[in-house]
Amino acid sequence: MVSDTAIFEAVGEVADPEVPVLTIADLGVLRGVRHEGDEVVVTITPTYSGCPAMDLIRHEVELTLNSLHVNGRVETVLSPAWTTDWMSDEGKAKLTEYGIAPPTGTRAVGGPVSLSLTIRCPLCGSPDTTELSRFGSTSCKSLWRCNSCREPFDHFKSL
């Protein structure tokens, strides 16, 4: 029998189809692995409701379970809602190396807080950046431009 830890590690290597340098473990989308009798249940939480990547992630997790010869299923859990606080430090570093500014800080608790924050350019490191659009290449990212190197870049939003 394959241990829950071994299954978690193998399934955790499934890549995010929207940002392929990240795994579902890096993102914190993989929430758990447990045995229910002879069946393994892998729990995942989408980064936001309606995330189109979840169907492919589910399929890749099922393929991984099959490759391990494990009888299992994938369960999607919406509560508690996913937050960028669940992203690993390694995942945030991978985002920067890939050219996407990682989320900064932690999610707001207790209501909205009006702040004007700058995001460091993942290409040259300059804090002199400007948000061009609240929505970037995917809904979980915003589009920014560096005023120093003039390059556009995505920023993974803090949620």
From TrEMBL:
Q: Which residues form the PaaD zinc beta ribbon domain?
A: 117-157
Q: Where is the MIP18 family-like domain?
A: 5-74
Could you tell me the superkingdom of the organism this chain comes from? Bacteria
Transmembrane regions: none
The family database entries (NCBIfam families) matched by this protein are listed as: PA_CoA_Oxy4
Cross-referenced PANTHER family: 1,2-PHENYLACETYL-COA EPOXIDASE, SUBUNIT D-RELATED (PTHR42831:SF3), FE-S PROTEIN MATURATION AUXILIARY FACTOR YITW (PTHR42831)
Q: Name the chain's protein.
A: Phenylacetate-CoA oxygenase subunit PaaJ
> Which species is this UniProt entry from?
Kribbella sancticallisti
